[in-house]
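task queued by scheduler; priority normal; single chain, no ligands, no partner chains; default sampling; output format set to structure tokens
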Amino acid sequence: MINKIPVIIDCDPGHDDAIALLLAFASERLDVKGVTIVGGNQTLEKTLNNALKVLSFADINVPVAKGADKPLMRELIIAPEVHGDSGLDGPCLPESHLKPCDLSAVEFIAKIVKESEEKITLIPTGALTNIAQFLICYPELKNKIERISLMGGACFGGNWTPAAEFNILVDPEAADIVFKSGIPITMSGLDVTHRALIYKEDIERIRAIGGKVAVMVAELLDFFSKFHGQMGFEGSPLHDPCAVAWVIDPTILKTKKLHVDIETKGEHTLGCTVVDYYDVLKKEKNVEVAFDIDRERFVDMLVQAMNNYK
């Protein structure tokens, strides 16, 4: 019998968030206790609606909790140029029959963590606002978090500014709190996610599975690939599923333990994950930073996950 890993996924769907959710729920390695939502790729109203639609469409019945609609100290940045006006443009999904639970995201995380006999792994794939608020409000529960496997940041360069990746840039103060928390962190940043490319033949492989979920994922990737094609990518980097894939199988990513700080004040570097790659500062190495991925195994994992929805 497989000993499942209890996780909570915190996300802002978003095409790659949606696929990360489906990957997690299809895995026999994970026990997804619930999903919490944050504003990011689109407004909170839209990211919440997207999560409920995707889960409902895939016949997944799980608690979904509404979280922060804006960063701790800033106005929300959204990414309609990447994800469209809905935040999940491409497939036409019916309205959800699911409703969010009565608890806020922070209350929900605290309840699950408090009641669990095992430590919980958090998988945030958006801005870290909900996670930071949880740590601020419930510091006594920090030791019941096994690890945070997040998508965000970069060692070398950004995608929203020259120095910053989108998720960290949206709420750098929240990221600073999380990275300084002392909780073990695995960071799937742009260094690895830009290697997690899905090509046209991979999309067709998923589409050929048939079944409504696989076809919907292929349609999500069709839309996603248009944006990345315009940006000069040969394929679509599937950012958020990397954070899930690492929890399912840590051998799929190559990581290096390094010291990482978050820039919260820089004029040109706000939101930068300052990775001490050469150990210049000789500080405590607080983050497992991912730099490479076995792309073929990653694609196989996604294909198998979509097969599980048939």
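post-processing summary
- The radius of gyration is 18 Å.
- Residues 212-230 form the longest helix (19 residues).
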